[in-house]
Amino acid sequence: MAFLFQKMVVVGVGLVGGSLALAARRRGLVKEIVGYGRGEKNLKWAQKNGIIDRFFMREHQIPEGVDLLVMATPVQAINALTRSFLPKLEASCLITDVGSVKARVVRDMENLLPPGISFVGAHPIAGGEQWGAQAAVEELFVGQRCILTPTLKTDAEALKKVAILWRRVGAKLEFMDPVTHDEILGMVSHLPHVLAYAMVNTLSRWKVDSLDVKGYCGSGFKDFTRIASSRPEIWRDICLFNRQVISKSLGDYIKRLQQLRRWIRDGEGDLLEREFASANEIRKQIGSVDGKRGE
Amino acid sequence: MAFLFQKMVVVGVGLVGGSLALAARRRGLVKEIVGYGRGEKNLKWAQKNGIIDRFFMREHQIPEGVDLLVMATPVQAINALTRSFLPKLEASCLITDVGSVKARVVRDMENLLPPGISFVGAHPIAGGEQWGAQAAVEELFVGQRCILTPTLKTDAEALKKVAILWRRVGAKLEFMDPVTHDEILGMVSHLPHVLAYAMVNTLSRWKVDSLDVKGYCGSGFKDFTRIASSRPEIWRDICLFNRQVISKSLGDYIKRLQQLRRWIRDGEGDLLEREFASANEIRKQIGSVDGKRGE
Lengths: 295, 295
Fold this sequence. Notes:
By secondary structure, chain A is of the alpha/beta class. Chain A has helices at 15-26, 40-48, 75-85, 103-112, 156-168, 178-204, 219-224, 232-241, 243-265, 269-286; strands at 5-11, 30-36, 54-56, 68-71, 94-97, 118-120, 122-124, 145-148, 172-175.
């Protein structure tokens, strides 16, 4: 069977980039995989463990003949790094990413790239709080959703190849425009991350006698704040790149909390019960975690 | 071996009350267990499945000779129900509860009870989102924390017996004054519940084209909002009974969110990263969910 890609460069050999490399190799989709990153130790580990064949750490050392460039860094780095690779990229090179924000990434890339070099925005909704190549697993994307965000400018051939890549590593594909993607993910993923980080920090300032309040966190608190273990740089970038949506949804949320606070203070039992019962009903429709963790 | 109690009445044969009944019986701590509740179907199920020996549904039908009365209802119901049982209770009867709020419950009970009838406040930190007798499991309290909240008025003998009860069903005991209990639980449990309910309701009002945003919730969102499946009446009562603490902590939290929102809007990447990294560090110290769910 012919390879889908001859030379894949993975920029950021972490949980998602590393898992895609592993899955693509084991499924025979790519002939050669080259890693790029800043942490030599991480890259060496990835090479030793068969995630990548080799690696480079200076942008100008990117090899010739790259036909798939996967940007798997925090979203702020995608454009600048691509720009520095650009002089060595050949026409027919296909670029894709795995970022959790799409509108700005896609727009910036489309503005940057010359004709012939295609970009296809992708967001595999899989991951977790672990970082680095050591967290990579071949099966990360199996049965998980991957959203592709083509625009009118997206090359049809390139889109087709990226779709094949993600399908072959097991993802369920969905197509969506970048703005819609950001509006949905801003609510179901970005906002909860901000809230979880804020909860942990609020807890850390709560003084009760000389007791360590942290010691009393049960599984409710732990599940509630699990996503606060996610990598800070990634979420900083997401907040910056999807700031309008997150700011809007956070505003809606704060208003709701202010109302709840008034109800609690005023002892409005009926209103509180109605609020909780409504959330209860909606939460039922969302279902429970089925073993696999995905972000 | 002699029984610790002869006749135990469980008021509210749900997840916690039912589990305590099951555990107490299987460990030979009680001779007879009588259930009280409003739902006949639930009580019949509990009787049929050996959780209780028999049940009654009108307060004046409480049997004679009760030496342990366990109040396992939403906290608002504890005092009024106890008052209605009171004419039939004998001196030497011991009353305890399992409520998630302690200061007001303990104070109200101490004001209500005549000399001879003792109350010991207890809060087993175990549970989950399931409701009713069918959710009861014998091992619910094994290895989980149970906080007892004696005061200067608490009878030493009664405290000792309640402590034995909880130790024998597997709980790790801790003693704390009721106010301290509420300050800690208000932050690590009550506040997150309010936030999770509010998140689900905020999501339900978020319109993105004609898409059902709920369908895009990943495991991050699901874990974050798992506790929004908790029973509304229980959490309504907790909010009313611990309103000062919850209102205060919610106020702190809202302030933090407002600051985060400003940072997001103004693109303050460094401040956001510092906030997230700090939460990250603290979250590490709290640890992950170890299989057992406890509330």
